[in-house]
Amino acid sequence: MHTVSALFRAADLVDAIVAVAGKLAAALILVMVALVTWNVLGRYVGGGAPVWAQELEWHLLLPVALIGIVSLMREEGHVRVDMIYGKLPARWRHSIDLVSMVCGAVIGILLVRYSLNYVGTSFSSLEGSPDPGGLPGRYVLKAMIPVCFALLSLQCAALALRHAAALTRA
């Protein structure tokens, strides 16, 4: 029983980390909107926007999208066929969610594994923008890929644990 409560505490910790990451992603969206507005105004009113500012839009989009996926999983806002799912008995819903969360965790782990070489190559060359005036440190951005998919795997595992527990009670 002690192990189970430790697993639930770990799941709560994952939820808390993802909640903070989600707030960070929401703040980045506001920064992105301001940046895009500035770039558009610069392009049409000021004669152009710097390359680094245009690249920064993409540098912000990646963490927002990846963290957004993880936050969506935490809130169980992922896509499902609700008109069918909502009519199923609770036991079936928990079973479906358990299987899908285990699959999500496995897929996340595979994406971490297969992205490490890609990110490692980028780190070893200290990859930056190929464009003059572009942003350095593209390797830091690419590092978000395995980090966010690891977080996705943890979030899916936390949800799988909760659905498994719900199945034992149902």
Write a structural description.
By secondary structure, the protein is mainly alpha-helical. It is built from five helices and no strands. It is elongated, with a radius of gyration of 20 Å. The model has no long low-confidence stretch (mean pLDDT 90).
Question: Which SSEs are present, and which pair or pack?
Answer:
Elements: H1 2-44, H2 51-74, H3 82-85, H4 90-124, H5 138-169
Number of strands: 0
* Percentage beta strand: under 5%
Terminal-residue CA separation = 18 Å
Q: Using only CA atoms, what is the Rg?
A: 20 Å
Fraction in helix: over 70%
SSE string, helices as H and strands as E: HHHHH
Question: Average pLDDT, to the nearest integer?
Answer: 90
Task: Count the DSSP helices.
Answer: 5
Runs with pLDDT <50, length 5+?
Answer: none
Helix/strand-derived category reads mainly alpha
Largest sheet: none
Described by the principal axes of the CA atoms, the overall outline is elongated
